[in-house]
Fold this sequence. Notes:
Blueprint: H1 2-33, H2 43-57, H3 59-68, H4 70-75, H5 77-98, H6 104-111, H7 114-126, H8 132-149, H9 164-186, H10 192-218, H11 225-252, H12 255-260, H13 264-277, H14 283-298
Helix pairs in contact: 1-11, 1-13, 2-5, 2-10, 2-11, 3-10, 5-9, 5-10, 6-9, 7-9, 8-14, 13-14
Amino acid sequence: MSDVNASDSLFFRIAPYLGLAGTSLFWAGNALVARGFNDSIPPLALSFHRWLVCALLISPFILRAFLRHKDIIKQHWGKIGVLAFLGVATYNSLLYTSAQFTSALNITLVNSLLPVATLVLAMPLLGQRLNLKSGVGVLFAFLGALYVILHGEPSALLSLQMNAGDSIMAAAMVIWSLYSVLLRKWAIPIPGFDLFAILLGLGLPMILPFYVLEHHIKGGFEWSYDLAAVIAYVAIFPSLCAYLLWNYGVTKTSPSTAALFAYLTPLLTALLSIPFLGEHPESYHLIGGGAILAGLWLSQDMGKSVKPPTPKPRT
């Protein structure tokens, strides 16, 4: 019996980290299957249809979540609205918009600053502190991700050209960091799946007016089987599955620890490109990947001392 309890305890300890690694895998697949579709569908159209398909898939649960937690929603409506705006309506819309103006390399480089931005926000908002071990871990993971992104050629940084798309991506990165920190800080007392369903139900209508405006300016797009498959993938995995795993990981570890797993995304994207795109394994995969994993191990305790506030009972 004690062995069973020990194995259960071990699973629950590592489950948040497995969930965050799964999030990075889905994000990597997102980058892989969405490559080359920037010209096929406008950014807000992609964002809207992504969340629309996701909402249709779980529509019965959205209605149930609103009815089941209506009292809590009334109590925390402002905070829930902010989370829906940041996490659902804004982040991916800005991400897809940035891809219209800048390169995939620039997007990945800007996004590699996500853990740093999250840590900077977590310090004043959550009272988080960074010790030497975790600081070294953050540095290792950042340098490892940078090495993979640049294909082992640091000199490639010198040839980068920054543009408006990079500023849009930087705004998206800060918004995702703020979403993660506020999700932990506010600790809204609604179970993870139900909270996601509520955020989706509120966030999707927020995108609609901007999508309509984009459609009026740019026009529509042509449907194809490939585009439908891409939208289905991003609706199920980077949307539904990744958000649930990310939210779980953030609440069970810390926003800063969760953000570090974003460094796995360029590594996993590169590794997935080997079987699916016929690319070849290179030494920078091993070197950069080793540095990322070492950084994650060193930083695994970062933010554990920061506990989400216990919601006060209603009187």
